[in-house]
Design a protein that fits this description.
Layout (H helix, E strand, L loop, with lengths): L1 E2 L5 E9 L3 H12 L4 E3 L2 E3 L5 E3 L2 E5 L3 E6 L7 E8 H20 L2
Antiparallel strand pairs: 1-2, 2-8, 3-6, 4-5, 6-7, 7-8
């Protein structure tokens, strides 16, 4: 879990075994309904083998849930719960910093 300057959570990251991906996905669909978006993709390991790597997103009014079929390693899966007001604040701050940096060039 990461905290902002007010020590409020910005995101919660849950990691698991890829073997559990389909069950995790099923449980999330059961709990939150059909996802907002499903994006197919691929991931590869160091030996060059490729694997499916689906990204599934549920977008709510205040929360975004992202389920990544393969996270960091091909045998791991991850679910990330993000509090949207905090994420939007971070994006705004980054954009303002970029504008400030660009004006100094």
């Amino acid at each position: 879990m990461s905290l902002d300057e007010d020590e409020m959570p910005e995101a919660l990251l849950l990691n698991g075994k890829h073997d559990d991906y389909q069950e995790i996905r099923r449980l999330l669909v059961e709990r939150y309904g059909e996802p907002t978006t499903v994006t197919p993709g691929t991931a590869s390991n160091r030996m060059g083998a490729t694997f499916s790597n689906e990204t599934v997103i549920w977008l709510g009014k205040r929360l975004m849930l992202t389920l990544q079929e393969r996270a960091n390693k091909v045998d791991r899966t991850a679910a990330i719960f993000e509090y949207l007001p905090r994420v939007e604040k971070q994006i705004k701050q980054r954009n303002e910093q970029r504008k400030s940096d660009a004006s100094k060039m």
